[in-house]
């Protein structure tokens, strides 16, 4: 591969690392919250099963999607799913937040195995989100001479695989620190889900420019103009998420205590 192609692949990998970091932190926070009601020893086991499930479902999703990715119906469903899941999270965060918090206070904690099943189901959703987003970012990269795996070019598969491994490493070792960053700059979580929605749009454009659909020209789906539009909007979302998010004051004791509790929960993943 020439230098320009390597730089493009490297840039997509950097975007994936940032996106995976924020989503992994959000995932770790959700899982930690789901097991919080259990006794300490059961909590450790549930988190261990959750992490094991994350590995299995992440790589299972990758290999399944690699064989289906060239089917336009799968691309369309993936686009709708990514856009829908992003809108759901944003709606839950900004519209349904107070209602959900009230319900959470009234809800009694589940037993150990029910909690484990809930964690595994959450893992499946997280795995699908992450892999679909990575595939959508990778499939418009230049093709390489590497052998195909399923329906994916070998280079595309390598980027998606690297992103998946990085996401798991972040969940394993650095999720707690990303949680603290998200608490300090909450706009980053919103930006992450806007990125997921925008990646869903990209996958939708790719589906619409598929030869069997041809609503958009194939040249547009893989062309320079669309790439410039996509990366410009993506960059604006990232910059906006960072600079428009107000830092929370360090002396907020409630947030500080919550951060310490989250770090304790996510640190269990390291043991």
UniProtKB/TrEMBL annotation:
Q: Which GO terms describe its cellular component?
A: membrane
Q: Does the keyword Transmembrane apply?
A: yes
Sorted keywords for this record are: Membrane, Transmembrane, Transmembrane helix
Report the main location listed first in the record. Answer: membrane
Q: Where is this region: Disordered?
A: 250-271
Source domain of life is Bacteria
Membrane topology is: Multi-pass membrane protein
Q: Which organism is it from?
A: Domibacillus epiphyticus
User: Where in the cell does this protein reside?
Assistant: Membrane
What is the protein's given name? TerC family protein
Tell me the InterPro entries matching this sequence: CHP03716_TM_YkoY, Integral_membrane_TerC, MFS_trans_sf
UniProt KW Transmembrane helix keyword: yes
């Amino acid at each position: 591969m020439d230098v320009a192609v390597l730089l493009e692949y490297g840039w997509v990998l950097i975007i994936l690392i940032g996106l995976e970091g924020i989503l992994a932190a959000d995932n770790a926070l959700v899982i930690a919250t789901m097991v919080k009601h259990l006794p300490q020893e059961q909590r450790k086991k549930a988190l261990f099963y959750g992490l094991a499930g994350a590995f299995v479902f992440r790589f299972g999703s990758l290999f399944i999607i690699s064989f289906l990715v060239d089917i336009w119906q799968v691309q369309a469903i993936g686009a709708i799913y990514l856009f829908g899941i992003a809108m759901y999270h944003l709606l839950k965060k900004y519209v349904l937040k107070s209602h959900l918090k009230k319900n959470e206070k009234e809800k009694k904690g589940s037993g150990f195995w029910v909690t484990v099943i809930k964690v595994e189901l959450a893992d499946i959703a997280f795995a699908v989100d992450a892999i679909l987003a990575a595939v959508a970012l990778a499939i418009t990269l230049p093709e390489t001479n590497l052998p195909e795996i399923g329906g994916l070019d070998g280079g595309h598969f390598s980027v998606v695989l690297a992103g998946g491994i990085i996401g798991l490493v972040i969940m394993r070792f650095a999720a707690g620190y990303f949680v603290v960053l998200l608490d300090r700059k909450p706009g980053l979580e919103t930006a992450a889900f806007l990125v997921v929605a925008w990646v869903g749009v990209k996958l939708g454009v790719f589906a619409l420019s598929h030869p069997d659909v041809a609503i958009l020209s194939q040249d547009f789906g893989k062309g320079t103009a669309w790439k410039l539009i996509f990366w410009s909007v993506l960059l604006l979302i990232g910059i906006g998420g960072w600079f428009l998010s107000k830092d929370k004051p360090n002396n907020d004791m409630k947030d500080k205590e919550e951060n310490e509790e989250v770090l304790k929960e996510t640190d269990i993943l390291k043991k």
